[in-house]
Amino acid sequence: MSDSQPGGIPAAAQDTGGTGGSSGTGGSGSSGSGSGKRGRNAAMAGGALVVVAALVGGYFLFGGTDAPRHRLTTPKTLAGEYQRDGKGEKGDGDAFDNKKVPGMTSNADVSAEYKAGATKKLQLGGAYGSVTDPRKAVDWVFEQTGKSLKTETGARAEGRLRKFSPSAFDGDVLKCQEYKISNMSLAMCGWADSSTVGTVSSMILTSDGTSTKPVDLKSTAELAAKVRKDALVTAD
Q1: Measured between alpha carbons, how far is 5 from 20 in angstroms, rounded to an integer?
Q2: d(C-alpha 228, C-alpha 82), whole Å
């Protein structure tokens, strides 16, 4: 991911907000007011996803020489239902905010936005290279992301950072955290192994676009494991 990450998810979220139908929300019959609320809420939550993408991408943008065992890609389809929204990004340029994942030397970073239907949004981000301490890398990414999300969007961590071991996951560590901003929630799962560190941030909007469905971290962890499996390829 480059520090010029496009703001595609907010736009997609706003489009989703506009598909809630002419019935609007509430009993006032003012569809314009409902549409405005949907757009504002969806854009606010979608913006948090883009903040995550920019932050995580920045942590990975350091060139390296170690040959990775695996590399990450941005395939057109993830987890059987999420379709890439636009082009995937690949970077190997300058650092963002002068930060670096401890113990990681990255060869390249990737980022892509995905959607499934009108309500499901997903952001994939990560890098590949050499990772000496996967657990420390994942904890650090969550620590930095939580601080920056709070500062830039007002989002707060909900509950605790939890470790999961989905059946489809064969990396070293996978953890997930819920974040809330206003009446919107998003889930972020991060993984690491000896050659990759990645994150999957997702949200599911309600049909009227005014809020999000409750976060299920276990299901998000299973989704992250599938996304990782689809995005991971053996290095040439």
Answers
A1: 28
A2: 13
For residue 10, the one-letter residue type is P
As a 3-state breakdown, the chain gives helix, strand, coil percent values, each rounded to 5, of 30, 30, 35
pLDDT at 102: 81
Q: Which residue has the higher pLDDT, 199 or 95?
A: 199
For the stretch 99-135, pLDDT in tens is 677 888 877 888 899 999 999 999 998 888 888 999 9
- E strand segments, the chain: 70-72, 77-78, 82-84, 89-91, 104-116, 120-131, 156-163, 173-181, 184-192, 196-204, 232-234
Q: How far is CA 122 from CA 72, 83, 172, in A?
A: 16, 9, 23
Enter the tokens of residue 1.
């991911």
Mean pLDDT of 29-50: 54
Dist. CA 125–CA 3, nearest whole Å: 12
d(CA 141, CA 137): 6
Q: How far apart are the C-alpha atoms of 205 and 41, rounded to whole Å?
A: 10
